[in-house]
Q: What sequence folds into this?
């Protein structure tokens, strides 16, 4: 095979791979935009060792396709001010890994059981005093909460919110 023919074959294979990739990825991106995840949080229990937080997650599928969703993995962060207008996220805790998978049909809403995360005071280090003081003074703490969910075993969606965790 001549050099020109080899180049032409390479270009054709590349174009075919690109077309296939776009055809596969476009629906996944659309599906991830269709999926709506909302969350709310509360302080479930206070103990001498720490606090147990409960995160309520609701998943909505307003789209036309079926979704296969992994149980969300949740991470909690304290947003620490390090300078005027500058912040730093400090990871406090995360949920246990749960291998549960949910099927969400079109126009369906799924409310999950609360996801509980224990936040030990000993792991909070220097920010524990700030969080405990805020909690005792205001009855709440604000934490950045991020959920990660796999969609149809091939795409990941992250949702982020600053949630107010109140004593109830």
A:
């Amino acid at each position: 095979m001549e050099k020109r023919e080899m180049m032409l074959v390479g270009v054709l294979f590349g174009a075919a791979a690109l077309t296939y990739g776009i055809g596969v990825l476009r629906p996944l991106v659309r599906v991830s935009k269709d999926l709506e995840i909302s969350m709310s949080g509360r302080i479930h229990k206070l103990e001498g060792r720490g606090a147990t937080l409960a995160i309520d997650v609701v998943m909505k599928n307003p789209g036309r396709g079926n979704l296969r969703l992994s149980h969300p993995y949740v991470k909690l962060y304290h947003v620490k001010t390090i300078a005027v207008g500058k912040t730093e996220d400090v990871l406090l805790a995360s949920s246990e890994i749960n291998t549960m998978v949910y099927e969400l049909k079109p126009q369906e809403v799924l409310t999950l059981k609360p996801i509980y995360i224990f936040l030990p005071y000993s792991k909070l280090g220097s920010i524990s005093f700030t969080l405990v003081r805020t909690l005792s003074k205001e009855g709440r703490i604000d934490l950045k909460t991020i959920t990660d969910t796999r969609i149809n075993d091939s795409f990941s969606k992250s949702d982020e919110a600053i949630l107010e965790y109140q004593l109830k």
Q: What stands out?
A: The chain has a mean pLDDT of 83.
